[in-house]
Amino acid sequence: MTEAIVEGLKDRVSKAIKIHQSIGVIVPVNNYSDLFESIMDQILGSKDELWIYLTVTKSYDTIVKSYKSIADKRNVKFIDCISRAAGISRIDKNCVYIESPVLLEKIIIEILHIAYDAKKDAKKYLVVDSLSALMIYNNPETVKEFFQHLINKTRSEDIHTVTIVIEEELDDYMNKIVFLNEKIIKVKESFI
Amino acid sequence: MPESQLCSDTQKVSIGIDELDVQLNGGIPTGSTVLIVGSSGSGKTTLCMQYLVNGAKRGERGVFFTITEPLFKLTKNLEGFRFYDKKLVETGMVNLIDLRIISERLGLDSEKYTVEDASALLDVLRDIAEELNVKRLVIDSITALCYRLQTREMIRDFIFKLGTSLAAMQCTTLLTSEVPPRTFKYSQYEIEEFISDGIIFLGDIERRGDLIRTLQIVKMRGTSHSRTKFAMNISTERGIELMPLLKS
Question: Is A106 on the interface with B (CB under 8 A)?
């Protein structure tokens, strides 16, 4: 059952991201792990595409523990915004550590650098996991401005973005931000 | 002549930090004296070294006069940066000089300089710049140098004469200016900024307890420029990088 759900989500996200420059995925907290798994599946199956995974939810270390092979994939780069703030100090070739999730400008700089280093003809994807977690560390106005910058910059660099939002944390403010995306996918518990 | 035309006709010196050059409409007008203002750890020395190294890579010789830091410490710190190339120092494209040693050799080791002492030091700086045929010069820091000049008039005279003679050699000068953190002062003696052609202010802002480095071009004669505040990132991999600061 779970496999079918993960496959279904993977299919929806992968189709949407190919058509739209930016998609927002609103997911109930109970189904976050299915969505996460479906994105990881997609990333692990990719070869020529560049995937940038901005994580504010799980540390890179935690992700690697579940998906060991991801540490050696050359076309995947992580930006971990929470490990350093939690006092975890390590160096990994596939991960850029940001000292604090408050350093939003630095996050954009690192995203663009990873994209610039990629092959010119490679399709580039960015996953923001998640907008809800960024809101914990920053004030909503700053996150809105950050997201506007991010959408503009990624659009100009032809990077397609997937932004995750936890449904239960979706307030008026986050609603306005997530609707800056071209396409919204609402994952319903009933769907699952 | 319209200002835009005037600006486009001015010869520019590229700093070598892309976003900063864009904000300066191509770079600093050649022959200018620019104050790089900031508190301790704000990135003044890094910015100046990046300016010299990038110039040297374009074939423009440069000299860095240090007063605040011994040479061995300076080079040790620089070696951590990818932009730094030891060969540029070995081949004389970037010259690192401890000004305290020069002062001692000139017998200027007293606490306060007389007018004659200041004049002798000025002559030596000019001679070195001429002899090495440098197009880029840095004094780190003008604050430490001014400390030894006894009056505001001496400071004004020193910087004015230094700037004028270096401009005649088509040499573009950066002077670092130390200020206490979180102050809206551009210099310790509040005179340096009036004689300089440009001011680049390195500061910081606090966001939820974290400090974010900022850079702002306050003034730059001879070119139109942005006055927007940028977030500044310093990394050993790429040196200084700028991104528009989120204003909220």
Answer: yes
Predicted ipTM of the assembly: 0.85
Among B208, B212, B213, B246, the strongest candidate for a mutation testing the A interface, having the largest count of A CBs within 10 A, is B246
pLDDT in tens, B197-233: 999 999 999 999 999 999 999 999 999 999 999 999 9
Overall number of domains in chain B: 1
Query: Measured between CB atoms, does A108 come within 8 Å of chain B?
Result: yes
Q: 3-state secondary structure string, chain A?
A: CHHHHHHHHHHHHHHHHHHCCEEEEEECHHHHHHHHHHHHHHHHCCCCCEEEEEECCCCHHHHHHHCHHHHHCCCEEEEECCCHHHCCCCCECCEEECCCCCCHHHHHHHHHHHHHHCCCCCCEEEEEECHHHHHHHCCHHHHHHHHHHHHHHHHHCCEEEEEEEEHHHCCHHHHHHHCCCCEEEECCCCCC
Domain residue limits at B174: 32-244
Cα A63 to the center of its chain, rounded Å: 13
Assigned CATH topology for domain A2-186: Rossmann fold (3.40.50)
Q: Single out the residue of B106, B192, B185 nearest to residue B144, CA to CA.
A: B192
Distance (Å, rounded) from C-alpha B25 to C-alpha B11?
11
More confident residue, A189 or B79: B79
- Reading the block at residue A173, the tokens are 């403010």
Q: How far is CA A79 from CA A120, A129, B237, in A?
A: 21, 10, 16
CATH number, domain of B63, equals 3.40.50.300
- In contact, A75 and A50? CB cutoff 8 Å: yes
Q: Does B1 touch chain A (CB under 8 A)?
A: no
